[in-house]
Design a protein that fits this description.
This protein has helices spanning about 10-20, 60-70, 85-90, 105-120, 150-165, 170-175, 185-200; strands at about 1-5, 25-30, 45-50, 55, 55-60, 75-80, 95-100, 125-130, 130-135, 140-145, 145, 170, 205-210, 215. It is α/β, with parallel strands linked by helices. The protein is globular.
Length: about 220
């Protein structure tokens, strides 16, 4: 899973970068509002960690702009602004969660995982799709209780389909997710990885909308 971190504090940013990488996330770290994307439409991005107090602008303005553009990417606000009205403003603007500084990094990681679970319509740490189960914290997939021998790209592809929560995930998103920093593989390579994944989990578990994308079935 790829996280966009927007945080200007060097010490906290470095601590978050290291902690998230240890949890098997890939991370892009930005420190200024001006460097943030105008639209939050990168299909490789699983979630955003957003500081509201940036040196050159407002994180709240970024949040409002992204939600006005109909972005559905989960956003977890991390900020020193802890007053009730400020928390309510952040949540009403579209934040999926709001964590006040100072905080313990394990709590942030747990809240981030909870936001990602809600986005994928999953209730627990194990994401269940019929006989297929994913354990994102361990980067592992099980079929009928038995571990699947997946390559890193096959696992990332399966995880991207799982995050779709049963809805169609377009080809561009899947291609982007096969690279940790969002550099898409070509269509031919995507088809190869999909074919290999289908062979390992059962072709019937991946539905196809021809010319558009794929979804994960709960069988």
């Amino acid at each position: 899973m790829h996280i966009l971190l927007i945080e200007d504090d060097l010490d906290l940013g470095q601590a978050l970068l290291s902690a998230l990488q240890l949890e098997a996330f890939s991370v892009q770290w930005l420190r200024r509002a001006a460097d943030a994307p105008v639209k939050l439409d990168d299909p490789a991005c699983s979630a955003v960690l957003l500081d509201l107090g940036l040196p050159d602008g407002s994180g709240l303005a970024l949040l409002q702009r992204w939600r006005a553009a109909q972005s559905r990417t989960p956003i977890l606000v991390i900020t020193a602004r802890g007053a009730l009205d400020e928390r309510l403003t952040g949540l009403d603007a579209g934040a999926d969660d709001y964590l006040v500084k100072p905080f313990e990094i394990p709590e942030l990681v747990a809240r981030l995982r909870a936001v990602l679970r809600r986005s994928a319509a999953q209730a627990g740490e194990t994401w269940q799709f019929g006989a297929l189960a994913l354990l994102p914290r361990r980067s592992q997939a099980l079929l009928e209780g038995q571990p699947l021998d997946l390559t890193p790209r096959e696992y990332q592809l399966l995880l991207a389909l799982a995050e779709g929560g049963g809805e169609v995930v377009d080809k561009a998103t899947l291609a982007q997710r096969l690279e940790p920093l969002g550099e898409a593989v070509d269509t031919a390579a995507l088809q190869v990885h999909l074919s290999n994944l289908r062979r390992k989990i059962g072709a019937e578990r991946i539905g196809t909308l021809r010319g558009v994308g794929y979804w994960l079935e709960s069988l």
